[in-house]
Write a structure and sequence with these properties.
Chain lengths: 475, 303
């Protein structure tokens, strides 16, 4: 049965228990157990002692009263009240628990008592014993606490009745003493328990703290960590498993790094091959196709000059226009594949040329800012990478962003080449970048930067335009 | 559920508080005790402690009840430790009637005029003896054998328990102080018998009537004690009245005692039987002359 109102308390308890350290938990458990046990035993012993001592007190009350009655008989019969008085005083003085004693005559009058001047109101009627009774004991409630009052008829009641009252003061004192000692023991045992628990906790938490430290180090990539196996217990097994895991992680890391290296090498080779291939095709187009087309143009112009027939001249003019257009396209193709200017004049000229060309082809205004590039050429692979990144970024801007303006900034500073390409288009979420070829393009840009030890970051959000930051060391 | 817990706690608390329901008495708040005098003046009868106070109560209760019925007035039994105290009570008029010992009568009669009322008759005679007893295992055969032993006297004023053994010792040319190693008083005859039976005393002299009565009632005493000497007869302990008793009361009491044996209801017989007496008879002061004579020869007893 789930108790509704109990749940918040349980939750709170769990919150408390969960919030404290293992050390506190173990200490708490030990302390709670010792205290529970101590208090339980104390209560139990206390109750037993109270019961036993009360029974004893009752017995003592009867025996004292019987003794008094036996000794008082002759004194009463010969009317020796002074001896009787002394007997009562002796009874009172020799029994610490006896609070009072008195003797009443057969008519129910108090003959002798131990109260001094006067007699407590109501005490006489608080207990009575018939002449044929052995005794009668009652618990009388007084202002000094409960008192076991025993009445014993003297000489079958013919000489009177002896009454003795035993107070529980001594019993209570004994009970308090026992309780105090047990509580003291509990406190001492608690202290010992706390010490033992603290030691135990230290034993338990030392390997765990070691594991935590090692795990943090492994998280930072330090796979040399090995933890000491302190004990042959569960935590020891955990330590062993942890060490094995670290070894496996190290091996996996090494394999991954190897694969990564291989992949980078491969990618670099592909890119280099691609660049070389493009360079070759561009040169081929430039050297062979362009020359052929130029020769064709010259031929056609010559042909139209030589021929007077207007029909042939028109045809020749039309063919010349087609040839000229084709030459333009071949030029553009060659430029896109691999601008020779990049190889011949460097990045600054190549970018300027590309941006100018871009501006001519798309209705997008591009701001160009180049700083520090005139102090000498960058390494050619850096130039190629930056050129390709700018090219890819602007292509994306033109194709996907719907931007009206873009800016390209490239600077060289402190051995770092930095480029920022921004647009005011409708932006995108870099995590879910749209179509496959765009994602591939972004991936290619990042790959190029990282192959050279650089870093590429894309910042964009829907409606916020897009920025590409790239930083490549070029010392 | 919450209500259940509350109920449980309340139950436990009430169980803990289950103290006695009696009203609290303040032991420190004291009030003076009321002292009231009896409206009806009872007939006060003293019985000298021939036997222990408890035995006296048990033995004399039927007789006192009989007297109470006969005189139509309550009877109060008064006991004192010694014969001398009873004599004092008679002299001061604080008791009306007393069963006294022989030598106590002799002393009381001679000193302040204690008056004889009646005397019990036992075995057909109004006499008794002092018997000298020793433990059953004792080798003693006479008083002479008890020299340097422990001797128990009954009462300082007792004829059979003090006067006669003292006289016997004097016949041996000694006094009890020098003759016995140690002496002590038991103040009653049955306690003297028990003292001998239990070996507390090596010898004692007791009233023969009490001894016979005691061994009849408690046969174990017969096996533990042995009689080694019996005195000549003495006048039996009488019933007396105080000197200034009204003659009418004296006559009524005398008649009541004499009528005991003829009581048609049987209560009188039972009363007599309880004190080991056949009947009460009239007696003259001269019956005690032999004791008076011995007392004079033995010297006045030290009370």
């Amino acid at each position: 049965m789930t108790v509704g109102w109990l749940r918040p308390w349980l939750d709170r308890l769990w919150m408390l228990a969960g919030a404290v350290s293992i050390r506190t938990k173990i200490l708490g458990i030990v302390l709670a157990l010792v205290l529970l046990l101590g208090l339980g035993v104390t209560l139990q012993v206390r109750q037993t002692v109270v019961r036993t001592m009360e029974a004893q007190l009752q017995e003592q009350s009867i025996s004292v009263a019987r003794d008094l009655a036996a000794r008082a008989t002759d004194l009463l019969l010969i009317n020796d009240l002074y001896s009787l008085h002394q007997l009562l005083q002796a009874t009172l003085n020799n029994n610490a628990s006896v609070r009072y004693a008195f003797v009443i005559d057969p008519q129910g009058r108090v003959l002798v008592h131990t109260f001094g001047n006067g007699f407590p109101i109501g005490l006489l009627d608080a207990n009575q014993a018939g002449p044929d009774e052995h005794h009668r004991t009652r618990l009388v409630n007084t202002d000094e606490g409960p008192i076991w009052d025993t009445a014993v008829p003297i000489f079958e009641g013919r000489a009177g009745t002896a009454r003795v009252g035993l107070s529980e003061v001594m019993v209570n004192r004994a009970v308090e003493s026992v309780t105090g000692q047990l509580l003291l023991t509990t406190v001492v045992v608690s202290l010992i328990g706390i010490t033992a628990a603290a030691f135990l906790t230290w034993l338990l938490t030392r390997p765990i703290l070691n594991l935590v430290q090692a795990a943090k180090a492994v998280g930072r990539g330090d796979f040399t960590q090995q933890v000491h196996r302190w004990a042959d217990d569960e935590i020891g097994e955990l330590s062993v498993a942890f060490n094995e895991m670290v070894v496996a992680l190290r091996r996996a890391g090494e394999e991954r790094a190897e694969r990564e290296q291989l992949r980078a090498h491969y990618v670099k080779a592909v890119i280099t091959a691609q660049e070389d291939e493009r360079k070759r095709i561009a040169r081929e187009l430039h050297d062979s196709a362009s020359q052929s087309l130029t020769s064709l143009l010259v031929g056609l112009r010559t042909m139209s000059g030589l021929c007077n027939q207007p029909e042939v001249r028109d045809h020749a003019e039309a063919l010349r226009a087609i040839a000229a257009h084709t030459l333009d396209e071949v030029h553009t193709l060659a430029l896109q594949l691999r601008p020779s200017v990049l190889d011949d004049l460097g990045l600054q000229a190549a970018i300027e040329r590309y941006v100018a060309d871009f501006g001519a082809r798309y209705p997008i205004h591009v701001d160009l800012a180049l700083r520090g590039l005139s102090e000498g050429r960058l390494p050619s692979e850096v130039e190629t990478a930056l050129y390709r990144i700018v090219q890819e970024s602007l292509t994306n801007v033109a194709r996907h962003s719907g931007a009206r303006a873009a800016s390209v900034m490239i600077e060289r500073q402190n051995g770092q080449a930095r480029a920022v390409i921004e647009d005011d288009g409708h932006g995108f979420d870099p995590a879910l970048a749209g179509v496959a070829d765009q994602r591939l393009g972004l991936y290619g840009m990042r790959e190029r930067a990282e192959l050279l030890g650089g870093k590429l970051t894309i910042e964009s959000a829907p409606g916020q335009g897009a920025s590409v930051f790239v930083e490549i060391p070029c010392a | 559920m919450r209500a259940c817990v509350v109920l449980l706690i309340a139950f436990l608390l009430s169980a803990c508080a289950g103290a006695p329901a009696a009203p609290a008495i303040r032991l420190s708040q004291l009030e003076p005790l009321l002292t009231q005098s009896a409206r009806v003046i009872p007939l006060r009868v003293a019985v000298a402690a021939v036997i222990s106070p408890r035995g006296t109560v048990e033995s004399y209760r039927p007789l006192l009840d009989y007297l109470s019925r006969r005189l139509s007035r309550p009877v109060e039994l008064v006991q004192r430790r010694t014969y001398a105290e009873v004599n004092d009570l008679l002299e001061r008029g604080e008791v009306d009637v007393a069963f006294v010992c022989t030598s106590a009568y002799v002393a009381g009669h001679d000193q302040f005029g204690m008056e004889l009322l009646a005397a019990p008759q036992v075995n057909g005679a109004a006499v008794y003896h002092s018997v000298l007893i020793v433990p059953a295992g004792s080798a003693a055969r006479s008083m002479a054998d008890l020299r340097d032993k422990v001797f128990a006297f009954t009462d300082p004023m007792s004829t059979s328990g003090r006067m006669y053994p003292t006289w016997l010792v004097q016949q041996l040319g000694a006094t009890p102080d020098t003759f016995f190693a140690r002496t002590f008083f038991t103040y009653s005859h049955d306690d003297a018998i028990r003292a001998v039976a239990e070996g507390l005393a090596d010898g004692a002299a007791v009233d023969s009537l009490v001894y016979d009565f005691a061994i009849r009632r408690d046969p174990a005493l017969r096996d533990k004690t042995r009689v080694i000497h019996q005195s000549p007869p003495f006048g039996i302990p009488p019933v007396v009245v105080r000197p200034d008793a009204r003659p009418q009361l004296k006559a009524e009491l005398q008649q009541a005692l004499l009528d005991l044996s003829d009581d048609p209801h049987g209560a009188g017989k039972a009363a007599l039987q309880a004190i080991g007496v056949e009947r009460f008879i009239l007696i003259e002061d001269s019956a005690y002359d032999s004791v008076r004579d011995m007392l004079n020869r033995a010297g006045a007893p030290a009370p």
